[in-house]
Design a protein that fits this description.
heterodimer, A: alpha+beta, Butyryl-Coa Dehydrogenase, subunit A, domain 1, Butyryl-CoA Dehydrogenase, subunit A, domain 2, Butyryl-CoA Dehydrogenase, subunit A, domain 3, 3 domains, 4-stranded mixed β-sheet, 4-stranded antiparallel β-sheet, 15% strand, globular, B: alpha+beta, 12 helices, 10 strands
Chain lengths: 384, 384
């Protein structure tokens, strides 16, 4: 076993940390007010190799590994949680393309995603299907060289900012389940696509909303994986991204914890800094312990992916626990700031609102726990 | 032992419940948009005897007990947590007046509070003193038959809506501690008072802000109790209000839980209502259990106060646990609504934002746990 970082990895993490602190953190609250990501910042992240870090250099990636991508997501999340959606979505969609896309599509789109020129979205959820994604309804009907898409995707992160969507649609109308679903890389600047934005509690800079498809066309060569194999071939690649989600939440929580240690070391009551009081220092000590344990769980999951080993159960653990833990820790940080912590003067209330979304998106805790049970005990644990 | 309500308590509970669910609940989100309480609604509550109900009838109250006041807070908060600040704060201020004011002043001050004509607030916290309240700095200097008050109070609920405040001041500049503190009734329209309103995460309709005192002249007859007794006499009365505060967090949590049971019984996935899945029903069953236990703790505390028994530790328990529990439960209700729960289509995100404030106001969890420890093992538990 080796828990240490190589010199190269330590240097990359330091670069990401510096970027996050100098370019992202000072603008965190203002970016929320703007309600969108700054594309210049996204391109800077691309130029630094933060997006698709594990993709091959010939595809525009940094030629490194999934664990490094995870470290970057964590550091970016500490600066601005919402910008961490960029490497999260970027590397996931890039991965899908590299695993299952046609060469021409890979050569065109993976570099664009890795450079930050193109922002991708993941188009799976619909108004009537969240957890039951295999029964999605958006239709894809072949018409010559294209497929014609009709339907609605909902709760899509970057709904009105993404340039392209990894879209899951039903190509086999006779099969209502997962075996009738295909995946496509669909540019969003085509006729028949319209988009909305929901008014959410947080992650305003990312935004969430619907994608409406009305006879919108996608070239057949943009299919990812084989026809009707969208679930069995493409979605199995999602596991590692759950560890990225865990790490970006851990990053945000660590930022609040670090700032809170500073605050309680300066704030005085009863004649001394309040950190002297165990009621203040104990929750922070507990938070540090839990964050480190969660961090190691996520790192190990990415290491398993890098080593080509199955990591479905570990990934599910990374998805249900660290986002929940981060939310609770950030909430404690608000409370440790006393009467000031509740207001918008501090970023903690925003981090709290931001991280909550990822307890839902990419799979609820309930599904994650069923996955863990299924990996342990088989399909008997799954009540459907 | 007897755990049931009297017939009278049951009748009052039913009245409060009807009022909350027909008059308050449908207006919950709109009231946040409006950003302030509706005075007409407050007057209706007064007419129904729901404000400061324990004040004797000859002084304008309903002549009931504090347990009933707690029941009212719980039922009102089910409809709208922010509106429950009225019975909470008016009940506390009325209690302070009854126990510390000269009878002729009480006869003047109490009826408008009980009727709802006057909203009441409590001004204790300052920018530099939250938990360390005994070292507050707001100055009061005697000048003939008046006191002249200078300084700032902050984080005051109903800062810019209350008509009258109980204000804690330093009347003895030579004593920096608790024995230099006095309490006064101060009307908000006294010359020299100005008020602000913060931009907060929740309880927007209540509002929180600062009160600035610039040579404010207050009659000496407005003093509550003796000079220098603001802390030792007046604040001892606060205990019971912590139980009412616990109950006004339990109310909105129960509302979210009830609505979530309904939602998960209708929402389908994998061919069945999602309530059939233990990952969905278990958290709700756990929530019902915890809420009932917390509720009984609060009721018992109020019963002890009504019976003239010491209840300091119990009150501290009511203050640190139920608000935290409510927040956690409401957050789980958001998650159980899947992708819809995060948006403002549902009231849960607002209830969650609202109840968080009461984990801070009226005493932090840290102070509450120190109180519990001190009641158990003495001052050795206090590190100051």
């Amino acid at each position: 076993m080796n828990y240490g970082l190589s010199e190269e990895l330590a240097a990359i993490r330091q670069t990401a940390r510096q970027f996050a602190r100098e370019r992202l953190l000072p603008a965190y609250q203002e970016t929320e007010r703007q309600g969108r990501l700054d594309r210049a910042v996204v391109r800077e992240m691309g130029a630094l190799g933060f997006i698709g870090t594990n993709q091959a250099e010939r595809h525009g990636g940094a030629g490194l590994d999934y664990l490094t991508q995870g470290l970057i997501c964590e550091e970016v999340g500490a600066g601005d949680f919402n910008y961490a959606y960029v490497p999260l979505a970027g590397t996931l969609v890039a991965d899908m393309l590299v695993q299952g896309g046609r060469p021409a599509v890979i050569d065109t789109w993976v570099p664009r995603i890795c450079s930050g020129e193109a922002l991708p979205a993941l188009g799976l959820t619909e108004p009537e299907v969240g957890s039951d994604a295999g029964h999605l309804r958006t239709r894809a009907e072949r018409d010559g060289h294209d497929f014609i898409i009709n339907g609605e995707k909902a709760s899509i992160s970057l709904s009105d900012q993404a340039d392209v969507v990894a879209l899951f649609a039903r190509t086999n109308g006779d099969d209502p389940g997962p075996r009738g679903v295909s995946a496509f890389l669909m540019p969003l600047d085509v006729p028949g696509v319209s988009r909305t934005r929901v008014r959410d509690l947080g992650s305003h800079a990312v935004g969430r909303g619907s994608l409406f498809f009305e006879d919108a066309r996608v070239p057949a060569e943009h299919m990812i994986g084989d026809e009707n194999k969208g679930f069995s071939q493409v979605m199995v690649g999602f596991d590692f991204s759950r560890a990225l989600i865990g790490l970006m939440c851990i990053g945000a929580a660590q930022a609040s914890v670090d700032e809170t240690w500073s605050y309680v070391s300066e704030r005085k009551a009863f004649g001394s800094p309040i950190v002297r009081f165990e009621g203040v220092s104990f929750p922070l000590a507990e938070a540090e312990t839990m964050l480190e344990a969660a961090r190691q769980l996520c790192y190990k999951t990415l290491w398993l992916r890098d080593a080509g080993q199955k990591h479905t159960s570990e990934a599910a653990m990374c998805k249900w626990w660290p986002p929940k833990l981060a939310f609770e820790i950030i909430k404690e940080c608000i409370l440790l700031h006393g009467h000031g912590g509740y207001s918008h003067d501090y970023p903690h209330q925003q981090r709290l609102r931001d991280v909550l979304g990822l307890q839902i998106g990419d799979g609820t805790a309930q599904i994650m726990k069923l996955i863990i049970a299924r990996e342990k005990a088989g399909r008997a644990a799954v009540p459907y | 032992m007897h755990y049931g309500f009297t017939d009278e308590q049951t009748a009052i509970r039913d009245t409060a419940r009807q009022f909350a669910r027909t008059r308050l609940l449908p207006n919950f989100q709109a009231l946040e948009q409006a950003g302030k309480l509706e005075r007409k609604t407050v007057s209706e509550m007064g007419e129904l005897g729901m404000i400061a109900c324990h004040v004797p009838e000859e002084l304008g109250g309903a002549g009931l007990d504090l347990l009933t006041q707690g029941i009212i807070c719980e039922e009102i908060s089910y409809g709208d947590h922010s509106v429950a600040y009225v019975p909470l704060l008016s009940g506390l201020v009325a209690d302070i007046i009854m126990n510390n004011a000269k009878p002729e002043m009480a006869r003047q001050w109490l009826p408008p509070i009980c009727s709802g004509e006057h909203l009441a607030g409590l001004a204790l916290t300052e920018p530099q003193t939250g938990s360390d309240a005994a070292h507050l700095g707001l100055r009061a200097e005697k000048d003939g038959d008046h006191y002249v008050i200078n300084g700032e109070k902050t984080s005051i609920s109903l800062s810019d809506q209350a008509d009258v405040f109980v204000v804690f001041v330093r009347s003895n500049q030579d004593d920096p501690g608790a024995h230099g503190v006095s309490a006064f009734i101060v009307y908000a329209d006294t010359p020299g008072i100005s008020r602000t309103h913060f931009n907060d995460l929740g309880t927007v309709a209540v509002g929180r802000g600062s009160i600035f005192f610039d040579n404010v002249r207050v009659p000496a007859e407005n003093r509550l109790g003796d000079e220098g007794k603001g802390f030792t006499q007046v604040m001892q009365g606060f205990d019971f209000s912590r139980a009412a505060l616990g109950l006004m967090c339990i109310g909105p949590a129960q509302a979210s839980v009830d609505e979530t049971w309904t939602y998960v019984t209708e929402r389908k996935a994998f061919g069945a209502p999602i309530v059939s899945f233990e990952g969905v029903s278990f958290p709700l069953a756990e929530a019902e259990t915890m809420l009932e236990a917390a509720r009984q703790l609060c009721y018992k505390t109020l019963w002890m106060r009504d019976a003239g028994q010491k209840h300091t530790a119990e009150a501290a328990m009511c203050k640190w646990w139920p608000p935290k529990l409510a927040f956690d439960i409401i957050k789980d209700c958001i998650l159980l609504h899947g992708h819809g729960g995060y948006s403002d289509d549902f009231p849960h995100q607002q209830r969650m934002r609202d109840v968080l404030g009461l984990q801070i106001g009226d005493g932090t969890a840290q102070i509450m746990k120190l109180i519990i420890a001190r009641e158990k093992v003495g001052r050795v538990a206090i590190p100051y």
